[in-house]
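Self-study notes.
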Amino acid sequence: MSRDHVQSAERSAAEAPPAALTGVETPFLELLARGASADAYEQPVLLARAEGRPAETIGALERAKLLALRVRAELEGRRRREAELSALFETAHDLAGLRDLDAVLKAIVQRARSLLGTDVAYLSLNDPERGDTYMRVTEGSVAARFQQLRLGMGEGLGGLVAQTARPYVTDDYFKDGRFQHTRTIDAGVRDEGLVAILGVPLMLGHHVIGVLFAADRRARVFEREQIALLGSFAALAAAAIDTANLLTETRSALAGLERANEIIRDRSAVIERASDVHDRLAELVLRGGGVHDVAAAVSQVLDGTVEFTEAADTAATPLEASRAEGHAVRHEDDWIAAVTAGGELLGALVLRGHPGLDPVDQLTLERAAMVTSLLLLARRSAADAEQRVRGELLDDLLDARDRDPRLLRERASRLHADLDSTHVVLAARLDGPAADAEQEAAARRRLGAAASHLAATRHGLAAARDGGTVLLLPLTSGDTATDLARRTARHLGTAVHEPVTVGASAPVRDLAAHPDHVAAGYAEGRRCLEALRLLGRAGDGAAAEDFGFLGLLLAGDRDIAGFVDRTIGQVVAYDERRGTDLVRTLDAYFTCGMSPARTKDALHVHVNTVAQRLERVGRLLGDDWQDPARALEIQLALRLHRLSAPAQH
């Protein structure tokens, strides 16, 4: 029922004599009591007509219905006004206890949307520096482009409100020519699907600081009461912004005063700390401390957390600024001091969570960075010397220059390596694309450094060789050459941030007495490495044993017995223990084209016997023994086993 119809009906009901309603108002009172919809008030009248009640009764019901609708409308209006006043009161309460401006503005927008019953509500603020207005809070919005809109003064409905300081409303945005349409704004409004928009200004005195909007995705006429309500919310939003600005200014002024007092109060303490850190750093250098010892000492003096970080793990822009300026640079809540030597960037000292730093404390951090660079250079010199020694020993083993086992053992012992234990020779090479020769050389240097570090921590040796790196690492109990190759490929790849392919030899022993085993193992490792690259397995690690029968071609000693044992050794051993004939049955099975029927004829046994033997083979070799690739290796192993067996006379 339209509003005009209800008002006309109310006038008619007001003119009717009240006595005529006696006895017929009961159903309408019940409808009022349970808060029924307006349509439900037609039911008593329709029921009376259906029952054939007298015209006087029906007329009385009509008048009672109109009065009841009038009462209902009055109650709805009061409930609405009560909700509006309650929302305004809650917003004012939020403003009184303002702690988070964004939370208050979001609550205002949410309540405005809820009370006006719109699809979307949003609030924009003016940007004096850019001379436009931008979205600050949205509620009900689904379009990202709309949420990021910026409106120039006079552009769109919001720009017009911001410029004129007057409310504007449109029931169809795209058909309204009162304001300037732009492609950007129209695209955002179209993405959001808005049609009807109401905007009211946020005022501080005579100045507009933003606009509060309510909008629908369908045509709609906003009533005067709704415009006034949105204006009330806008006034509260403006007050919230003004209060927050005043609080920010007050807090800033108080913080400034407090900081000034702290500087005056702590000046003497800062000077004492500077003297203390100087003494501590000097002591650290004299006793041979490390970079982490320096960081720990400075942490205590600066009353914060200082860490040494690699250059790659530090924010690039402030690190480069510190390197160029020669001073510590603030980055968010941290301070970063570059650790450099001769123009080379070695890392950084980072003071965490300490945004306010006294100039003397800043100088302390910078001096600590300088001491750190000296310690790193000293450590690098020692590491380079050890790396050269390790590389020279491995080069001698590869070239078999030194044949004296005693001297070889002594040289290895000084490097904490044991040539009498079992080792694996690993050939490693980078497989990442290089932009130019300079980058390729730098990548090789990183690989060499990572390999040397790994060899030192594993009591092994490492050296540059043939455009890559060769490592001699001990093989621990329970480990295999394959495990070691894959683990080394992962470790080196992670260290240099590029794929590293690693080929491994079979385990080698007695290296002091037989240094030529190292050269043979290196050749085998290189063959495995090239096989991995040809197979498209760059960045992986493997040994000859991983390539099945191809491993016979890759292995330096052509370990035929080892291949046969790995492939069919369990079947051979079963025959030897039980006196069975599984090997001959398996050979006949493949010779007969994997046909059990032809196999039983070749062996002169029952087909069930063939099935039972093949089932036993499956339990020994695994369910995949008849897969093409596995079957090929088994047939080759059978052939080699037959050829290597003593001749039968």
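Second protein, same conventions, sequence then structure:
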Amino acid sequence: MSSPPPLPADPPTPTARLLASVAGVVAGYAALAVAELVAAAVRPEAGPVTAVGGSAIDLTPAPLKEWAIRTFGESDKTVLQLGILVVLAVVAVLLGQWELWRRGAGAAGLLAFGVIGAVAAATRPDAGSAADALPSLVGAAAGAGLLYWLVGRLVARPGAPAGSRRRFLLAAGATALAATGVAALGRSLGANRSKDAEASRADVRLPRPDEPVPPRPRGTQLAVAGISPFITPNKDFYRVDTALVVPKIDAARWRLRVHGLGVTKELTLTFQDLLDRPVIERDLTLNCVSNEVGGPYIGNARWTGVRLADLLREAGVRPPSRGGPADQLVARSVDEMTIGTPVEDVMDGRDALLAFGMNGVPLPFTHGFPVRMLVPGLYGYVSACKWIEEIELTTFDAYDAYWARNGWAARAPVKTQSRIDTPRDQARLRAGTVVVAGVAWAQRRGIERVEVQVDEGPWERAELAASDGPDTWRQWFLRWRATPGEHTLTVRATDGSGETQTARRTGTMPDGATGRHTIRVRVE
């Protein structure tokens, strides 16, 4: 007679499933801690959260990126990282459950996620070497082994569930404690790697400019509460980029390479080489193409650096108008971001800079230390490469830079825009004289006139602050006799070419928003 089939195993109890979920989370936490420790030794950017997050940014459709910037502002990267951690926590719970149902399956799933992280790290544009895959692989291997071991504490003695739970809780607690220590060690090592860069920035002494900024006319800063200051403090200057980990580069090790089409003399410059060149200082307004009408992604600062056009001429570069074969300058940052800029715009006489100073101090790390590029009159995505380390001369036909590949226009001159800073939208005001004020900008053209409309009434001409030149924004104000009720205020600017800001409202893609800033207030 044949033996009867084996009885099916008893299904896991709710308590066992709960503890298996805990095992998954603890093993996942340990995997991340080990991965970040290895990344501290390899490269901070090779950590799995950073690598997967960077790949997510690259693969995200441009409209969704714009939504994230509008919704979360400069916290968009933090939100992305938190989102990745939440997803990983949910996956860890499921892997713990899977491991309980079928021994080895959850551990294999964790290893698979490690492979995904390794591929993301190794195939990123900024991948340093094949070693970038190690953090994810080593972390996943550690996590898989711990998951198998922890769930084993639950099923080792099915006849003694209480004892199994005690053994499991002790093992899980010890694992979590050890993982916390590993994470702390990784952070400590990462901090040590940053110390050289921080020390090099602290040691920088900006040279006295050979061409100081021209004396600023009296009256560029209006004495109006709530208006944006003419010079934006560094701590308040907007930041929009794709770097999940802000690069920290030792200025002593930094190099800039200039090469490519039409370059007759390749250059490799050190930071000290730049400091030793003729230094200029300029007040320039910089704004992001993601800035919606009335948005915050714009600032005006005093930049210190060297003329980019002089450096290009030294390398033998000629603009297309003078027979040069290259019409695009591709700037690459240390994280392999590529910014494409028209060569003609860099060499047409405007103060395009390789900047190393911002408002009298070395560039902050978040704004590109040791060196960044700035080209007045162009949106930042086609002109303002941070952490720059390479300049390649090429053509727009031959190469699409990062944002062009993502659907943005290859050439993007700044549009004429204006903004109401005070009063704020939805403000409650008292009847009487109210000062309406803000800023307007049209880099390379300057601002000639600003007008304000109340409800559907006539356009009233605002008073302008003194102009500091066409490459900076300009403050304005209007004294409005406010009457009780709900009111709509709209502003428009006219630039130095005579063109008035259009009323046609468009989004930021593909080359910057258009429309007029409007607010609504209640007067009582």
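Instructor comment on the second fold: DSSP finds eleven helices and 19 strands in the chain.
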